[in-house]
UniProtKB/TrEMBL annotation, chain A:
UniProt lineage: Bacteria, Bacillati, Actinomycetota, Actinomycetes, Streptosporangiales
Acyl-CoA dehydrogenase/oxidase C-terminal domain boundaries: 203-315
EC number(s) from the headed UniProt entry: 1.3.8.7
Acyl-CoA dehydrogenase/oxidase N-terminal domain segment(s): 3-96
GO molecular function: flavin adenine dinucleotide binding; medium-chain fatty acyl-CoA dehydrogenase activity
Needed cofactors: FAD
UniProt record similarity statement: Belongs to the acyl-CoA dehydrogenase family.
Keywords: FAD, Flavoprotein, Oxidoreductase
Protein name (Swiss-Prot/TrEMBL): Acyl-CoA dehydrogenase
Automatic annotation (TrEMBL), chain B:
Gene3D superfamilies: Acyl-CoA dehydrogenase/oxidase, N-terminal domain (1.10.540.10), Butyryl-CoA Dehydrogenase, subunit A, domain 2 (2.40.110.10), Butyryl-CoA Dehydrogenase, subunit A, domain 3 (1.20.140.10)
Domain Acyl-CoA dehydrogenase/oxidase N-terminal, chain residue ranges per copy: 13-126
Keywords from the named record: FAD, Flavoprotein, Oxidoreductase
An example Gene Ontology molecular-function term: flavin adenine dinucleotide binding
Keyword Oxidoreductase: yes
A cellular-component GO term for this protein: plasma membrane
Domain Acyl-CoA oxidase/dehydrogenase middle positions: 130-225
Designated name of the protein: Alkylation response protein AidB-like acyl-CoA dehydrogenase
Cofactor: FAD
Amino acid sequence: MNETIAALVATVRDACAERSGTGAVTACADGGWNAGLWAALEQIGITTVAVPEEQGGSGGDITAAVAVLEVLGEYSAGVPLAETALLAGWLIATCGAAVPSGPMTAAIAGPGLRTRREDGGLSVRGTIARVPWARHAHRLTVLDNDQVIVLERGGFTLTRGTNLAGEPRDDLHVDAVVPASQVHGLPAGSPVSVQAFRSRAALARAGLMAGAARRALELSVAYAGEREQFGRPIGRFQAVQQHLAAMAGEVLLAKVAVESAALAFAPRGDADLAVAAAKVVAGETAGVVASLAHQIHGAIGFTEEHALRHSTTRLWAWRDESGNEDAWSEILGRRAVSAGTGGLWPLLTRTR
Amino acid sequence: MDLWSLEPVALPAELEALRTNVRAFLAGELAAGRIASRCDQWLGGWDPGFSRRLGERGWIGMAFPERYGGSAAGALARFVLTEELLAAGAPVAAHWIADRQTGPGLLRFGTEEQKQAFLPRIARGECFFAAAMSEPDTGSDLASVRARGTRADGGWRLSGTKVWTSGAHRAHAMIVLARTEPRTADRHAGLTQFIVELPDPAVRIRPILLLTGEHHFNEVVLDDVFVPDARVLGEPGSGWHQVTGELAMERSGPERILSTFPLLAAAMDDLAERGDQAGAARVGTLVARLWALRQASLAVAGRLDAGAAPAVEAAAIKDLGTRFESVVTDTVRLLSRVVPDPGSDRRLPRLLAESILHGPGFTLRGGTNEILRGVVAKELGVR
């Protein structure tokens, strides 16, 4: 981690720690939305991290964004940084437009959305399912083939939904004519594609998972040190030590995987392969770590009273968002099989 | 926790040239039939001719300084070379221990005379070492060794029994860990490392055959073996410290994730031929994990290159990596539905048989997984 990123991470960590009551910074308003933390992150100037400064972004690269997401995941932070910076900010900036301030979210236009050119703009009608943080976003950006549509808050209604952790995942209903100034064409040869969107979204979730897994481990280590059974802390039992060490290995692997995937966005890398692998590994880690963390915490761990749930419900939710382990494995497996016996190793080493 | 400072490294671009050279060389060796691709060749593939050909190219002792016959290329270059050799299933066992641990150990703790006597020969692929650490009833509890070194005129006399010494019957020397002071409450004190040159009439070597019938391991009986002072490695009494440094080196390498890679690779063409889509998805899970493990292993190499000693990280990754090696075996076994056959002239049944029969060793050698998790638990503060 270079010094700039290390300093950034330390600042974000302080901001989260200041606002964390029960080891998490979610326990605020509706859907865990944390307006105070978002304001602090805006003040730090990282809400559009990895978006170039010329476009109104915070600057930095994807490695910086992933480092920040790991911290936010650790604190179960209720803010849409991944959506604002890595998706919406990226889409708008790639089109050469200025990136607005405020929380944003982003989605791919699915079959449920129809667009048609009209006088004065673009008619947009239909539904987009499960958009993260939509009810709190000032703007929604939609990737629709070769254009990016920016919907203002008043331009849609929504049906509230949540993921396992209670984070907003709302269905949007759009029936609006979006002015031409809010519809941006993608420049020729732009890196934006549905695949690239999915990769970024998956990397963001993997980064958050790496952080949440680390917190679940830390809570487990602490609990194993204080909870006594049979006259001694449960952490003195070898079986519990083995569980904790196995968790630590998984957490370490997930951390290195997501950070390696972020590095693969450099010109010589193969980001698609790297992100697919990182999302699979983070998903596996999420399962193992959440399960062992609950085993160690006993009955208290699966109550509303204990902070562990903030981390584990997110781990369970995020591993199924932006493509689960099987979805990304299938992509990797197809690439591996088509590379063939002689091509598998070159495929694995081509990222770096 | 220090564990979390482990970070991925981007390999410098100049190492791509090395990778390309090694790949071309290996393709030539395989095409000419001089070597065959097999699983677990860093334990089983003893081929002095191949080792010498690597030595001629400067591919042994890459981390040694030039004045001792090395190329001072560093840990990352050695990582690239090593992973290419293992991925190809090349026979590297002969020089393995000398290159991986004896050489670095001599560099750190050896006398100038010892360095000159051994390092250039190791780098040329002409001097192979065996590591004589374990004993009957020691296993992963290395501090319990009972082999004794007693003072003699101008040197030491060693007596005791060592087991699991790979290649002792063919090596030019072995490093023996022995107790040189009476055991005290500090079990780690009073151990010393000795360089015993082979053959020696006072060293009896008996094969301990593997499940495959292959002869790699030995029982070595030291019957009052004389070792001159000039062949004591490092400080008498500090053997434990020296050996644990060696183990950190031993645990962190790509050999802990790639023992069964030739089998995984061979499964690709099989799946393609049978058009097995569901199988491809399961293979994708393995590819993901292997990719991540490789990044982690590389990250440890990056730390070593920077002069750090990431022993705990190495332990955690070895635990994950060696369990993965066996998952590869099982997944390919179930997907290919091939009956394993060690004598088959077909690739898949043979590689599968090698992987299954060598499999029990993966999670034992270099410290059992339970011991490794103990190392990690200690770092976490619960042990």
